[in-house]
């Protein structure tokens, strides 16, 4: 049964109230390692949004027309990952040809998205919550934008924090993790506004 | 039926996606025929676009030195690019100095040939060949250095002091061919046979292969010659310093000078080792000293195991060199430095040579 949520509501909810990163803690590893610079964070955020939207839509179709009819639910993870890997490959080639400057600024981050668990997470949530195709596309796009927003926010905070007098043992990853915790708590403030489960 | 269904469906999905990738690749990555202009029109190549410059040039038998084989991890395959090939990639920047960026020097393994491109290459690279040699002898010269003699199918012209790259085939857990650079230890008079000195580096891909897997009679791919380390044609005295397998290019240079009758120059060869068991070719150079009055071989041990039996110099090679520069070597002649060994040793030696007024220092650093 499909949850009766307007795709637009789902779109905004996945950016703010149910941010994939700050409420589900998915895609943390690149979130922490790339957020040192604003430029890289922007590039990665853009790439994640693109891949997330496209793979969620394709995986929805694969789920409906391949996985369910052939009762292959137990192979869902493998099939989703294969789709994500292929989409990243194709996207890499297309971006390289059509927007070489964007390709250069994304650098090695683009192929790394294949193993970003937020991408798989969104596809699995989409299936688990029985979203329609339109809902899934908006959910994927919103989650991507939410991830982008979170990493850019963290990068901006880290630039400020780097100049602040932090106790030596907390410098680097320590203060970053604390920052993420506080950011997540701040985003929890949105959580009561709407439930997208 | 069900047993076959799952792999079949996964196989079909994978095949469809793979076919899609191949189709997109053939459409998107089809850059058609592009032209590579080398050294302002001296050589023009018509090639298929889309591949990295390093591999495109290699397919046309022009081999740019690359110790890592094109993975962007050695920074050796630098090429000056005269036309626009886009911004620097994050993978290139760690290997570039500010001056190199100003001159638009790029890593040829990282930039792709997508349109007509103009580049500048040293003329010597046109002589570089890729040959499949045969290992005719494999000898332990110390407990951790092997002398590998390779018979080549055709002659190569190199200057004493230059190096070649060997292509290590996949073995054991190493799944991809790997390239590593080694100085030639033999003299250029033997054009179809080269000697390499390879020290076992624990965990090293190429050195482990040579020490534990390579056998006499095996084939080994060799690309070369490369390098700017060779004897400069002056009449200055030569201060040569080497450590360990840094012996190779100096041995080649010294023996080549003797063979060609360039014996009027004074040559001081300081060879540093830790203990007696790290010394090699001592007899060879002691013999040469007797035949060539201007040649002086000074082996030095930093930690001799039997100090009472060792009658040579003791101490770090830099200290021994300074001792000779200050007390033994004629201070009034012009001098050049020739160094080969670890970066630490070379940096220390270069600094000391400069302090003693020797500005022309040439070296071959182990990368």
Task: Tell me briefly what this model is.
The complex is a heterodimer of chains A (197) and B (367). With 197 residues, chain A is mainly α.
> Which structural class should the secondary elements of chain B be placed in?
alpha/beta
Instruction: Give the tally of structural domains of chain B.
Output: 3
Low-confidence stretches of chain B: none
Based on CA inertia axes, which overall geometry of chain A fits?
Answer: globular
Structural class by secondary-structure content of chain A: mainly alpha
**Which CATH first-tier class of the largest domain in chain B would you pick?**
Alpha Beta
Q: Helix fraction of chain B?
A: 25-40%
The total of beta strands of chain B comes to 17
Number of domains of chain A: 1
Description:
The complex is a heterodimer of chains A (197) and B (367). By secondary structure, chain A is mainly alpha-helical. Chain A has one domain (7-189). Chain A is built from 9 helices and no strands. Chain A has helices at residues 7-15, 28-34, 38-67, 76-98, 100-106, 109-112, 117-128, 133-162, 173-191. In chain B, 35% of the residues are buried. The longest helix of chain B is centred in the N-terminal third of the chain and has 27 residues, at 2-28. Chain B has helices spanning 2-28, 53-59, 98-102, 205-213, 247-259, 282-291, 317-327, 343-355; strands at residues 33-38, 43-48, 78-81, 105-107, 117-120, 129-140, 145-151, 163-168, 178-183, 193-199, 219-226, 237-243, 267-273, 295-301, 313-314, 335-341, 361-365. Chain B is globular, with a radius of gyration of 24 Å. Chains A and B meet through helix 4 and helix 5 of A and helix 1 of B. Chain A: The chain crosses the membrane at residues 12-32, 44-62, 74-95, 102-125, 137-161, 173-194.
